[in-house]
Amino acid sequence: MSDTPTLRRILAEHRTLAVVGLSGNWYRPSFFAAKYMQEHGYRIIPVNPNYEEILGEKCYPDLASIPEPVDLVDIFQKPDTTPAYARQAVDIGASVVWLQLGIENGEAGDIARDAGLEFVQNHCVKIEHARIFGGLNFVGVNTKVITSHRSKYIAN
């Protein structure tokens, strides 16, 4: 499901996100997206066995290790690994499986939907949140600078 009303409802109702594959490197898309969501009031739970902590939050090696309820499992992993994460999302009682922009897998969708979970693929939580709730500007980033002057150059 990826229509705007559905995405709006999912992002409004589900405030605890387990981010599978969250990188501790500030320049990685997963870090940028998670930081944005954290700054907009979402609880971010990093899932990556390579880190102890990311964004000031304890990092877990897998979804099963998370000791609290998770609403949405946001997956930054290769498409062929996503069915296993969808099964884990079902096992921990998540409500939504969300595959990030550029990631699609029909089997993961079948696993999630067959268990009663909502499923989103090929969408970025940060982009959709900014698009639906505000936060995008001319080049796609909210700079928090108010000006009537536009740069002569557009970032590529």
* Average pLDDT for all residues: 90
CATH superfamily: NAD(P)-binding Rossmann-like Domain
Structural class computed from helices and strand pairing: alpha/beta
| CA-CA gap between termini | 30 Å
Q: Strand order, biggest sheet?
A: 2-1-5-6-7
> What's the architecture in CATH terms?
3-Layer(aba) Sandwich
CATH topology name, in short, is Rossmann fold
Number of strands: 7
Question: Percentage of helical residues?
Answer: 25-40%
Structure description:
The chain has 156 residues and is of the alpha/beta class. The chain has a single domain, classed as 3-Layer(aba) Sandwich (Rossmann fold), CATH 3.40.50. It is built from five helices and seven strands. β6, α4 (106-114) and β7 form a beta-alpha-beta unit. The longest helix has 11 residues, at 29-39. The radius of gyration is 16 Å and the shape is globular.
What labels describe this entry?
156 residues, alpha/beta, Rossmann fold, two-stranded antiparallel sheet, 7 strands, 16% strand
Please specify the SSE layout and strand pairing.
Blueprint (H helix, E strand, L loop, with lengths): L3 H10 L2 E5 L8 H11 L3 E5 L5 E2 L2 E2 L13 E4 L6 H11 L3 E4 L6 H9 L3 E3 L4 H9 L23
Parallel strand pairs: 1-2, 1-5, 5-6, 6-7
Antiparallel strand pairs: 3-4
Helix pairs in contact: 1-5, 2-5, 3-4
Task: Explain briefly what this protein structure is.
With 156 residues, the chain is an alpha/beta fold.
